[in-house]
Design brief:
The chain is of the alpha+beta class. Helix content is 27%, strand content 29%.
Length: 549
Protein backbone atom coordinates (compact mmCIF):
# COMPACT_ATOMS: atom_id res chain seq x y z
CA UNK A 1 0.00 0.00 0.00
CA UNK A 2 1.17 3.49 -0.89
CA UNK A 3 1.11 6.10 1.80
CA UNK A 4 -0.06 9.33 0.18
CA UNK A 5 0.85 11.49 3.12
CA UNK A 6 4.28 10.08 3.77
CA UNK A 7 5.12 9.43 0.20
CA UNK A 8 6.81 5.99 1.09
CA UNK A 9 5.89 2.55 -0.33
CA UNK A 10 5.86 -0.71 1.81
CA UNK A 11 6.72 -4.20 0.50
CA UNK A 12 3.85 -6.60 -0.33
CA UNK A 13 3.80 -10.26 0.28
CA UNK A 14 3.53 -12.80 -2.71
CA UNK A 15 0.74 -15.36 -2.23
CA UNK A 16 1.50 -19.01 -2.74
CA UNK A 17 1.31 -20.26 -6.35
CA UNK A 18 -1.16 -22.99 -5.53
CA UNK A 19 -3.66 -20.68 -4.17
CA UNK A 20 -5.87 -18.25 -6.28
CA UNK A 21 -4.43 -14.87 -6.39
CA UNK A 22 -7.06 -12.28 -5.46
CA UNK A 23 -7.39 -8.93 -7.39
CA UNK A 24 -5.38 -6.34 -5.68
CA UNK A 25 -7.40 -3.50 -4.22
CA UNK A 26 -7.35 -0.04 -5.83
CA UNK A 27 -5.22 2.54 -4.11
CA UNK A 28 -7.00 5.23 -2.26
CA UNK A 29 -6.05 8.78 -3.31
CA UNK A 30 -6.15 11.41 -0.70
CA UNK A 31 -7.20 14.66 -2.55
CA UNK A 32 -5.98 18.06 -1.28
CA UNK A 33 -8.41 20.43 0.28
CA UNK A 34 -7.65 23.35 -2.30
CA UNK A 35 -6.84 23.32 -6.05
CA UNK A 36 -4.01 25.55 -7.22
CA UNK A 37 -3.69 26.37 -10.99
CA UNK A 38 -0.41 26.20 -12.81
CA UNK A 39 1.81 29.30 -12.84
CA UNK A 40 1.82 29.38 -16.68
CA UNK A 41 -1.65 30.85 -16.70
CA UNK A 42 -0.57 33.91 -14.74
CA UNK A 43 1.22 35.51 -17.76
CA UNK A 44 -1.80 35.89 -20.11
CA UNK A 45 -3.91 36.87 -17.15
CA UNK A 46 -1.58 39.72 -16.27
CA UNK A 47 -1.39 40.81 -19.94
CA UNK A 48 -5.17 40.93 -20.15
CA UNK A 49 -5.38 42.97 -17.00
CA UNK A 50 -2.74 45.44 -18.24
CA UNK A 51 -4.43 45.76 -21.65
CA UNK A 52 -7.81 46.35 -20.05
CA UNK A 53 -6.27 48.99 -17.80
CA UNK A 54 -4.73 50.78 -20.78
CA UNK A 55 -8.01 50.66 -22.67
CA UNK A 56 -9.87 52.07 -19.71
CA UNK A 57 -7.20 54.75 -19.24
CA UNK A 58 -7.30 55.63 -22.94
CA UNK A 59 -11.09 55.85 -22.85
CA UNK A 60 -11.00 57.98 -19.75
CA UNK A 61 -8.24 60.27 -21.15
CA UNK A 62 -9.52 60.36 -24.72
CA UNK A 63 -9.98 63.89 -26.05
CA UNK A 64 -11.72 65.20 -29.15
CA UNK A 65 -10.60 64.25 -32.63
CA UNK A 66 -10.24 67.11 -35.10
CA UNK A 67 -8.96 67.64 -38.63
CA UNK A 68 -6.84 70.58 -39.76
CA UNK A 69 -6.09 71.34 -43.42
CA UNK A 70 -2.80 72.94 -44.42
CA UNK A 71 -1.45 74.26 -47.70
CA UNK A 72 1.49 71.84 -47.47
CA UNK A 73 2.32 68.65 -45.60
CA UNK A 74 5.94 69.64 -45.10
CA UNK A 75 7.03 68.46 -41.63
CA UNK A 76 3.81 66.53 -40.84
CA UNK A 77 4.22 62.84 -39.95
CA UNK A 78 1.53 60.50 -38.62
CA UNK A 79 2.28 59.22 -35.12
CA UNK A 80 5.18 61.64 -34.67
CA UNK A 81 4.13 65.26 -35.15
CA UNK A 82 2.89 66.79 -31.91
CA UNK A 83 0.41 69.59 -31.26
CA UNK A 84 1.76 72.02 -28.67
CA UNK A 85 0.55 74.98 -26.70
CA UNK A 86 3.18 76.86 -24.69
CA UNK A 87 5.57 73.97 -25.36
CA UNK A 88 3.15 71.47 -23.76
CA UNK A 89 1.89 68.49 -25.80
CA UNK A 90 -1.88 68.65 -26.20
CA UNK A 91 -2.33 66.29 -29.15
CA UNK A 92 -0.74 64.19 -31.82
CA UNK A 93 -1.19 63.73 -35.55
CA UNK A 94 -2.54 60.26 -36.26
CA UNK A 95 -3.08 60.47 -40.00
CA UNK A 96 -2.06 62.72 -42.88
CA UNK A 97 -4.10 62.53 -46.10
CA UNK A 98 -4.69 64.57 -49.21
CA UNK A 99 -7.78 66.78 -49.23
CA UNK A 100 -10.81 66.13 -51.45
CA UNK A 101 -9.78 68.78 -54.00
CA UNK A 102 -6.10 67.76 -53.89
CA UNK A 103 -5.07 71.35 -53.10
CA UNK A 104 -4.56 70.97 -49.35
CA UNK A 105 -3.30 68.39 -46.88
CA UNK A 106 -5.60 67.19 -44.08
CA UNK A 107 -4.09 66.16 -40.75
CA UNK A 108 -6.20 64.12 -38.32
CA UNK A 109 -5.32 64.98 -34.73
CA UNK A 110 -6.22 63.23 -31.47
CA UNK A 111 -6.36 65.90 -28.80
CA UNK A 112 -5.82 65.35 -25.09
CA UNK A 113 -8.80 65.39 -22.77
CA UNK A 114 -7.75 68.72 -21.22
CA UNK A 115 -7.62 70.29 -24.71
CA UNK A 116 -11.41 70.49 -25.13
CA UNK A 117 -11.26 74.29 -25.35
CA UNK A 118 -9.17 73.99 -28.55
CA UNK A 119 -12.33 72.97 -30.39
CA UNK A 120 -13.69 76.54 -30.23
CA UNK A 121 -14.67 77.84 -33.65
CA UNK A 122 -12.03 80.58 -33.64
CA UNK A 123 -9.12 78.36 -32.61
CA UNK A 124 -6.04 78.74 -34.80
CA UNK A 125 -3.51 76.11 -35.88
CA UNK A 126 -0.24 76.51 -37.76
CA UNK A 127 2.93 74.56 -38.47
CA UNK A 128 6.00 75.78 -36.58
CA UNK A 129 9.18 75.70 -38.66
CA UNK A 130 12.41 77.74 -38.53
CA UNK A 131 11.52 81.23 -39.74
CA UNK A 132 13.13 84.67 -39.89
CA UNK A 133 10.60 87.46 -39.40
CA UNK A 134 10.32 91.05 -38.22
CA UNK A 135 10.16 89.90 -34.60
CA UNK A 136 13.32 87.78 -34.89
CA UNK A 137 14.25 84.18 -35.62
CA UNK A 138 11.66 81.62 -34.44
CA UNK A 139 11.34 77.85 -34.49
CA UNK A 140 15.04 77.06 -34.13
CA UNK A 141 14.27 74.14 -31.80
CA UNK A 142 12.50 72.36 -34.66
CA UNK A 143 15.83 71.88 -36.43
CA UNK A 144 16.49 68.88 -34.17
CA UNK A 145 13.05 67.81 -32.95
CA UNK A 146 11.20 68.38 -36.19
CA UNK A 147 8.22 70.59 -37.00
CA UNK A 148 5.16 70.64 -34.77
CA UNK A 149 1.70 72.18 -34.90
CA UNK A 150 1.16 75.27 -32.78
CA UNK A 151 -2.26 76.11 -31.42
CA UNK A 152 -4.00 79.17 -30.00
CA UNK A 153 -7.31 78.55 -28.26
CA UNK A 154 -10.29 80.63 -29.25
CA UNK A 155 -12.91 82.37 -27.16
CA UNK A 156 -16.01 81.49 -29.17
CA UNK A 157 -18.73 79.42 -27.52
CA UNK A 158 -19.34 77.55 -30.78
CA UNK A 159 -17.26 74.43 -31.41
CA UNK A 160 -16.28 72.48 -34.52
CA UNK A 161 -14.03 69.62 -35.55
CA UNK A 162 -12.71 70.84 -38.92
CA UNK A 163 -10.26 73.73 -39.11
CA UNK A 164 -8.19 75.53 -41.74
CA UNK A 165 -4.61 76.00 -40.67
CA UNK A 166 -2.74 79.31 -41.01
CA UNK A 167 -0.07 79.62 -43.68
CA UNK A 168 2.29 81.26 -41.18
CA UNK A 169 2.36 81.73 -37.41
CA UNK A 170 0.31 84.62 -35.99
CA UNK A 171 2.19 87.81 -35.26
CA UNK A 172 0.93 88.00 -31.67
CA UNK A 173 2.25 85.15 -29.51
CA UNK A 174 -0.57 82.94 -28.17
CA UNK A 175 -1.56 83.70 -24.60
CA UNK A 176 -0.09 87.23 -24.60
CA UNK A 177 -2.49 89.55 -22.79
CA UNK A 178 -3.41 92.86 -24.35
CA UNK A 179 -5.96 94.68 -26.49
CA UNK A 180 -6.43 95.02 -30.26
CA UNK A 181 -7.33 98.23 -32.11
CA UNK A 182 -8.18 98.92 -35.75
CA UNK A 183 -6.34 101.38 -38.00
CA UNK A 184 -7.25 102.63 -41.48
CA UNK A 185 -4.71 104.28 -43.76
CA UNK A 186 -4.08 105.18 -47.39
CA UNK A 187 -1.07 102.91 -47.87
CA UNK A 188 0.67 100.05 -46.09
CA UNK A 189 4.15 101.37 -46.86
CA UNK A 190 6.83 99.10 -45.43
CA UNK A 191 4.56 97.72 -42.70
CA UNK A 192 3.77 94.03 -42.26
CA UNK A 193 2.38 91.69 -39.63
CA UNK A 194 4.73 91.65 -36.67
CA UNK A 195 6.06 95.19 -37.22
CA UNK A 196 6.57 97.05 -33.91
CA UNK A 197 4.33 99.71 -32.36
CA UNK A 198 6.09 102.48 -30.43
CA UNK A 199 5.13 105.00 -27.78
CA UNK A 200 7.86 107.58 -27.14
CA UNK A 201 10.31 105.22 -28.87
CA UNK A 202 9.43 102.36 -26.48
CA UNK A 203 8.02 99.22 -28.05
CA UNK A 204 4.56 98.59 -26.60
CA UNK A 205 2.97 96.25 -29.16
CA UNK A 206 2.98 95.05 -32.73
CA UNK A 207 0.87 94.79 -35.84
CA UNK A 208 -1.34 91.71 -35.72
CA UNK A 209 -2.63 91.77 -39.31
CA UNK A 210 -2.80 93.98 -42.39
CA UNK A 211 -5.03 93.77 -45.44
CA UNK A 212 -6.79 95.87 -48.09
CA UNK A 213 -10.13 97.38 -47.18
CA UNK A 214 -13.32 96.35 -48.93
CA UNK A 215 -13.18 99.20 -51.47
CA UNK A 216 -9.53 98.65 -52.33
CA UNK A 217 -8.74 102.35 -51.75
CA UNK A 218 -6.92 101.88 -48.45
CA UNK A 219 -5.63 99.38 -45.92
CA UNK A 220 -7.01 98.06 -42.66
CA UNK A 221 -4.63 97.10 -39.88
CA UNK A 222 -5.10 95.42 -36.53
CA UNK A 223 -2.58 96.43 -33.86
CA UNK A 224 -2.03 94.63 -30.58
CA UNK A 225 -1.05 96.67 -27.51
CA UNK A 226 0.33 94.69 -24.60
CA UNK A 227 -1.54 94.82 -21.31
CA UNK A 228 0.81 97.11 -19.33
CA UNK A 229 0.46 99.83 -22.00
CA UNK A 230 -3.29 99.70 -22.71
CA UNK A 231 -3.87 102.87 -20.69
CA UNK A 232 -1.72 104.88 -23.12
CA UNK A 233 -4.32 104.56 -25.89
CA UNK A 234 -7.26 106.95 -25.64
CA UNK A 235 -10.15 107.74 -27.93
CA UNK A 236 -8.32 110.80 -29.31
CA UNK A 237 -4.94 109.07 -29.81
CA UNK A 238 -3.18 109.84 -33.11
CA UNK A 239 -1.31 107.16 -35.08
CA UNK A 240 1.29 107.57 -37.83
CA UNK A 241 3.90 105.71 -39.90
CA UNK A 242 7.23 105.58 -38.11
CA UNK A 243 8.99 103.71 -40.92
CA UNK A 244 12.25 104.85 -42.47
CA UNK A 245 14.02 108.15 -41.83
CA UNK A 246 12.44 111.59 -41.56
CA UNK A 247 14.96 114.14 -42.88
CA UNK A 248 14.16 117.86 -42.73
CA UNK A 249 16.09 120.99 -43.61
CA UNK A 250 14.38 124.15 -42.37
CA UNK A 251 15.13 127.42 -40.60
CA UNK A 252 16.07 125.49 -37.46
CA UNK A 253 18.74 123.47 -39.27
CA UNK A 254 19.09 119.85 -40.33
CA UNK A 255 16.93 117.27 -38.53
CA UNK A 256 17.09 113.47 -38.69
CA UNK A 257 14.27 111.58 -36.97
CA UNK A 258 13.55 107.86 -36.71
CA UNK A 259 11.98 105.63 -34.06
CA UNK A 260 14.72 102.99 -34.12
CA UNK A 261 17.16 101.32 -36.47
CA UNK A 262 14.76 98.38 -36.73
CA UNK A 263 12.14 100.55 -38.39
CA UNK A 264 14.54 101.23 -41.26
CA UNK A 265 14.06 97.60 -42.32
CA UNK A 266 10.83 96.31 -40.82
CA UNK A 267 8.81 99.52 -40.56
CA UNK A 268 6.71 100.49 -37.57
CA UNK A 269 3.87 102.57 -36.14
CA UNK A 270 3.91 105.19 -33.40
CA UNK A 271 1.10 106.84 -31.47
CA UNK A 272 0.61 109.74 -29.10
CA UNK A 273 -2.21 111.86 -27.70
CA UNK A 274 -2.57 115.45 -29.00
CA UNK A 275 -1.87 116.85 -25.53
CA UNK A 276 1.18 114.64 -25.05
CA UNK A 277 -0.24 113.32 -21.76
CA UNK A 278 -1.65 109.97 -20.74
CA UNK A 279 -5.39 109.71 -21.53
CA UNK A 280 -7.84 109.69 -18.66
CA UNK A 281 -9.49 106.47 -19.87
CA UNK A 282 -8.32 103.73 -22.21
CA UNK A 283 -10.01 103.26 -25.58
CA UNK A 284 -12.38 100.27 -25.90
CA UNK A 285 -11.40 97.15 -27.79
CA UNK A 286 -11.60 97.34 -31.62
CA UNK A 287 -11.74 101.16 -31.64
CA UNK A 288 -10.92 102.41 -35.15
CA UNK A 289 -8.31 105.14 -35.71
CA UNK A 290 -6.87 106.91 -38.77
CA UNK A 291 -3.26 106.12 -39.71
CA UNK A 292 -1.39 109.28 -40.87
CA UNK A 293 1.74 109.40 -43.01
CA UNK A 294 3.89 111.22 -40.46
CA UNK A 295 3.80 112.74 -36.98
CA UNK A 296 3.09 116.32 -38.08
CA UNK A 297 0.10 115.20 -40.14
CA UNK A 298 -1.18 113.04 -37.28
CA UNK A 299 -1.02 115.76 -34.61
CA UNK A 300 -2.48 118.44 -36.88
CA UNK A 301 -6.00 119.63 -35.90
CA UNK A 302 -8.82 117.83 -37.72
CA UNK A 303 -9.26 119.12 -41.26
CA UNK A 304 -12.78 117.99 -41.93
CA UNK A 305 -13.78 116.54 -45.30
CA UNK A 306 -11.50 117.26 -48.24
CA UNK A 307 -12.69 119.42 -51.16
CA UNK A 308 -11.66 117.61 -54.34
CA UNK A 309 -10.38 120.21 -56.81
CA UNK A 310 -9.15 120.00 -60.40
CA UNK A 311 -6.51 122.31 -61.91
CA UNK A 312 -5.41 122.40 -65.56
CA UNK A 313 -1.89 123.40 -66.57
CA UNK A 314 -0.48 123.97 -70.07
CA UNK A 315 3.12 123.37 -69.05
CA UNK A 316 5.22 120.34 -68.24
CA UNK A 317 4.54 118.66 -64.91
CA UNK A 318 7.94 117.07 -64.64
CA UNK A 319 8.83 117.14 -60.94
CA UNK A 320 5.21 117.15 -59.72
CA UNK A 321 4.08 113.90 -58.14
CA UNK A 322 1.28 112.58 -55.96
CA UNK A 323 1.65 113.85 -52.41
CA UNK A 324 3.20 117.19 -53.42
CA UNK A 325 1.97 120.02 -51.17
CA UNK A 326 -0.58 122.66 -52.15
CA UNK A 327 0.66 125.82 -50.45
CA UNK A 328 -0.95 129.19 -49.70
CA UNK A 329 1.60 131.69 -48.38
CA UNK A 330 3.33 129.04 -46.27
CA UNK A 331 0.19 127.21 -45.13
CA UNK A 332 -0.30 123.74 -46.61
CA UNK A 333 -3.94 123.64 -47.69
CA UNK A 334 -3.82 120.19 -49.28
CA UNK A 335 -1.86 117.77 -51.38
CA UNK A 336 -1.77 116.45 -54.93
CA UNK A 337 -3.87 113.33 -55.44
CA UNK A 338 -2.93 112.37 -59.00
CA UNK A 339 -1.53 113.81 -62.25
CA UNK A 340 -2.87 113.05 -65.74
CA UNK A 341 -2.94 114.21 -69.35
CA UNK A 342 -5.81 115.23 -71.69
CA UNK A 343 -6.17 116.47 -75.26
CA UNK A 344 -8.22 119.60 -75.87
CA UNK A 345 -9.91 119.14 -79.25
CA UNK A 346 -11.07 122.76 -79.45
CA UNK A 347 -7.64 124.31 -78.94
CA UNK A 348 -5.86 121.27 -80.41
CA UNK A 349 -3.44 121.22 -77.51
CA UNK A 350 -2.51 118.92 -74.68
CA UNK A 351 -3.33 120.00 -71.16
CA UNK A 352 -2.35 118.46 -67.87
CA UNK A 353 -5.10 117.89 -65.25
CA UNK A 354 -4.03 117.72 -61.60
CA UNK A 355 -6.46 116.52 -58.93
CA UNK A 356 -5.82 117.82 -55.43
CA UNK A 357 -7.45 117.47 -52.03
CA UNK A 358 -7.97 120.89 -50.47
CA UNK A 359 -8.76 121.58 -46.82
CA UNK A 360 -9.96 125.21 -46.68
CA UNK A 361 -10.75 124.78 -43.00
CA UNK A 362 -6.99 125.08 -42.35
CA UNK A 363 -7.38 128.80 -43.01
CA UNK A 364 -9.36 129.08 -39.79
CA UNK A 365 -13.02 129.72 -39.16
CA UNK A 366 -12.50 133.46 -38.79
CA UNK A 367 -11.01 133.67 -42.30
CA UNK A 368 -13.83 131.58 -43.75
CA UNK A 369 -16.42 133.81 -42.08
CA UNK A 370 -14.68 136.92 -43.44
CA UNK A 371 -14.82 135.43 -46.94
CA UNK A 372 -18.58 134.97 -46.69
CA UNK A 373 -18.81 131.21 -46.31
CA UNK A 374 -22.45 130.30 -45.72
CA UNK A 375 -24.30 126.99 -45.73
CA UNK A 376 -21.99 125.44 -48.33
CA UNK A 377 -19.00 126.31 -46.18
CA UNK A 378 -15.56 125.99 -47.80
CA UNK A 379 -16.90 125.86 -51.34
CA UNK A 380 -18.45 129.30 -51.02
CA UNK A 381 -15.22 130.60 -49.52
CA UNK A 382 -13.26 129.29 -52.52
CA UNK A 383 -15.78 130.83 -54.89
CA UNK A 384 -15.33 134.24 -53.28
CA UNK A 385 -11.56 133.91 -53.38
CA UNK A 386 -11.54 132.99 -57.09
CA UNK A 387 -13.53 136.11 -57.98
CA UNK A 388 -10.79 138.14 -56.28
CA UNK A 389 -7.99 136.58 -58.31
CA UNK A 390 -7.30 133.37 -56.39
CA UNK A 391 -5.38 131.07 -58.78
CA UNK A 392 -3.13 128.03 -58.82
CA UNK A 393 0.45 128.18 -60.05
CA UNK A 394 3.31 125.70 -60.41
CA UNK A 395 6.52 126.60 -58.63
CA UNK A 396 9.84 124.92 -57.95
CA UNK A 397 10.20 123.76 -54.37
CA UNK A 398 13.87 122.76 -54.56
CA UNK A 399 16.57 123.68 -57.03
CA UNK A 400 18.49 120.54 -56.10
CA UNK A 401 15.71 118.02 -56.76
CA UNK A 402 13.67 120.17 -59.18
CA UNK A 403 10.53 119.12 -57.32
CA UNK A 404 7.39 121.15 -58.05
CA UNK A 405 4.52 122.14 -55.82
CA UNK A 406 1.27 124.03 -56.39
CA UNK A 407 1.20 127.58 -55.10
CA UNK A 408 -2.17 129.20 -54.37
CA UNK A 409 -2.30 132.99 -54.17
CA UNK A 410 -4.12 136.09 -55.36
CA UNK A 411 -3.13 137.47 -58.78
CA UNK A 412 -5.00 140.79 -59.36
CA UNK A 413 -3.86 141.03 -62.99
CA UNK A 414 -5.05 137.52 -63.86
CA UNK A 415 -7.96 137.23 -66.35
CA UNK A 416 -11.35 137.10 -64.71
CA UNK A 417 -12.66 133.61 -64.02
CA UNK A 418 -15.15 131.81 -61.80
CA UNK A 419 -15.06 128.60 -59.80
CA UNK A 420 -16.64 125.99 -62.08
CA UNK A 421 -17.79 122.44 -61.38
CA UNK A 422 -16.95 119.28 -63.26
CA UNK A 423 -18.87 116.37 -61.82
CA UNK A 424 -17.97 116.14 -58.15
CA UNK A 425 -14.81 118.20 -58.69
CA UNK A 426 -14.35 121.97 -58.41
CA UNK A 427 -12.42 123.48 -61.34
CA UNK A 428 -9.93 126.02 -60.00
CA UNK A 429 -8.35 128.39 -62.62
CA UNK A 430 -4.57 128.62 -62.95
CA UNK A 431 -1.91 131.06 -64.15
CA UNK A 432 1.50 130.32 -65.73
CA UNK A 433 4.43 129.85 -63.43
CA UNK A 434 7.12 132.54 -63.08
CA UNK A 435 9.65 130.58 -65.11
CA UNK A 436 7.15 129.93 -67.89
CA UNK A 437 6.20 133.61 -67.95
CA UNK A 438 9.89 134.57 -68.14
CA UNK A 439 10.38 132.11 -70.98
CA UNK A 440 7.42 133.65 -72.80
CA UNK A 441 8.86 137.14 -72.42
CA UNK A 442 12.26 135.99 -73.64
CA UNK A 443 10.54 134.30 -76.57
CA UNK A 444 8.75 137.53 -77.49
CA UNK A 445 12.01 139.49 -77.24
CA UNK A 446 13.74 136.93 -79.43
CA UNK A 447 10.95 137.24 -82.01
CA UNK A 448 11.39 141.01 -82.15
CA UNK A 449 15.13 140.68 -82.43
CA UNK A 450 14.67 138.33 -85.36
CA UNK A 451 12.82 141.11 -87.22
CA UNK A 452 15.77 143.57 -86.99
CA UNK A 453 17.79 143.62 -90.33
CA UNK A 454 21.19 143.11 -88.76
CA UNK A 455 22.74 142.19 -92.15
CA UNK A 456 21.62 145.40 -93.82
CA UNK A 457 22.71 147.46 -90.84
CA UNK A 458 26.07 145.75 -90.92
CA UNK A 459 26.53 146.48 -94.65
CA UNK A 460 25.64 150.14 -94.19
CA UNK A 461 27.96 150.35 -91.22
CA UNK A 462 30.78 148.86 -93.26
CA UNK A 463 30.19 151.44 -96.01
CA UNK A 464 30.15 154.26 -93.47
CA UNK A 465 33.36 153.07 -91.90
CA UNK A 466 34.98 152.84 -95.35
CA UNK A 467 34.00 156.48 -96.11
CA UNK A 468 35.27 157.58 -92.73
CA UNK A 469 38.57 155.87 -93.37
CA UNK A 470 38.89 157.66 -96.76
CA UNK A 471 38.07 161.00 -95.12
CA UNK A 472 40.69 160.43 -92.45
CA UNK A 473 43.26 159.58 -95.12
CA UNK A 474 42.37 162.79 -97.00
CA UNK A 475 42.62 164.81 -93.83
CA UNK A 476 46.00 163.35 -93.12
CA UNK A 477 47.27 164.16 -96.64
CA UNK A 478 45.85 167.62 -97.51
CA UNK A 479 43.71 169.23 -94.88
CA UNK A 480 45.99 168.60 -91.94
CA UNK A 481 48.97 170.65 -93.32
CA UNK A 482 46.67 173.57 -94.19
CA UNK A 483 45.14 173.41 -90.72
CA UNK A 484 48.61 173.52 -89.20
CA UNK A 485 49.46 176.70 -91.21
CA UNK A 486 46.15 178.29 -90.18
CA UNK A 487 46.83 177.48 -86.57
CA UNK A 488 50.30 179.09 -86.84
CA UNK A 489 48.79 182.28 -88.30
CA UNK A 490 46.12 182.35 -85.62
CA UNK A 491 48.80 181.97 -83.00
CA UNK A 492 50.63 184.99 -84.38
CA UNK A 493 47.42 187.01 -84.45
CA UNK A 494 46.64 186.11 -80.85
CA UNK A 495 50.18 187.13 -79.86
CA UNK A 496 49.73 190.54 -81.55
CA UNK A 497 46.36 191.02 -79.92
CA UNK A 498 47.84 190.16 -76.57
CA UNK A 499 50.56 192.75 -77.06
CA UNK A 500 47.98 195.38 -77.95
CA UNK A 501 45.86 194.55 -74.96
CA UNK A 502 48.66 195.03 -72.45
CA UNK A 503 47.86 197.83 -69.85
CA UNK A 504 51.08 199.80 -70.54
CA UNK A 505 50.73 199.73 -74.32
CA UNK A 506 50.18 203.08 -76.25
CA UNK A 507 46.99 201.70 -77.71
CA UNK A 508 45.60 201.12 -74.24
CA UNK A 509 46.41 204.81 -73.22
CA UNK A 510 44.84 206.27 -76.32
CA UNK A 511 41.86 204.01 -75.95
CA UNK A 512 41.32 205.18 -72.36
CA UNK A 513 41.48 208.86 -73.39
CA UNK A 514 39.08 208.28 -76.21
CA UNK A 515 36.66 206.52 -73.90
CA UNK A 516 36.81 209.47 -71.45
CA UNK A 517 35.98 211.90 -74.27
CA UNK A 518 33.12 209.73 -75.35
CA UNK A 519 31.86 209.67 -71.77
CA UNK A 520 31.92 213.49 -71.54
CA UNK A 521 30.07 213.76 -74.85
CA UNK A 522 27.42 211.37 -73.58
CA UNK A 523 27.00 213.40 -70.41
CA UNK A 524 26.55 216.64 -72.44
CA UNK A 525 23.96 214.97 -74.61
CA UNK A 526 22.09 213.78 -71.53
CA UNK A 527 22.06 217.36 -70.16
CA UNK A 528 20.79 218.74 -73.50
CA UNK A 529 18.10 216.09 -73.66
CA UNK A 530 16.87 216.97 -70.18
CA UNK A 531 16.75 220.68 -71.03
CA UNK A 532 14.79 220.10 -74.23
CA UNK A 533 12.30 218.01 -72.32
CA UNK A 534 11.72 220.94 -69.96
CA UNK A 535 11.89 223.73 -72.61
CA UNK A 536 10.88 222.40 -75.99
CA UNK A 537 10.19 225.93 -77.24
CA UNK A 538 13.89 226.69 -77.11
CA UNK A 539 14.21 224.88 -80.42
CA UNK A 540 12.38 227.86 -81.99
CA UNK A 541 13.04 230.77 -79.74
CA UNK A 542 16.46 229.77 -78.64
CA UNK A 543 17.74 229.49 -75.20
CA UNK A 544 16.19 232.08 -72.91
CA UNK A 545 18.48 234.33 -71.08
CA UNK A 546 18.75 233.69 -67.46
CA UNK A 547 17.26 236.28 -65.21
CA UNK A 548 19.59 238.61 -63.49
CA UNK A 549 22.10 238.59 -66.26
Amino acid sequence: MIDQEGGNASATQTPPRAQQVPEPPQPEIDRPSRWLPSLIWLIPLLAAIIGATQVVTWLLDKGPEITVSFASGDGLEAGKTKVKFKDVDIGQVTKVTLGPDATRVVATIHMAKEADRFTAADTRFWVVRPQIGTSGVTGLNTLLSGAYIGAASGTSKDTKSEFVGLDKPPAVPPGLKGREYKLHGDSLGSLSAGAPVYYRRVRVGQIASAQLDKTGEGVDLSVFIEEPYIGLVGTDTRWWHASGVDVRLDANGFKLNTQSLATLVTGGIAFESPSGQKPATAAPVDTTFVLANDRSAALRPPDGPAVKTLLYFDQSLRGLSAGAPVDFRGIVLGEVRNVGIEYDRERKKFRMPVTVDLYPSRLGQSVLDALGADANGPEDALRQMVTRGFRGQLRTGSLLTNQLYINLDFFPKAPKAALAERGDLLLLPTVPGPLDELQSQLSRIATKLDKIPFDEIGNNLNKTLAGANALVARLDGKVLPEMQEALGAAKKTFASADALLQQDSPLQSELRQTLQDVQQTVDSLNTLSDYLERHPESLIRGKAKEKGK
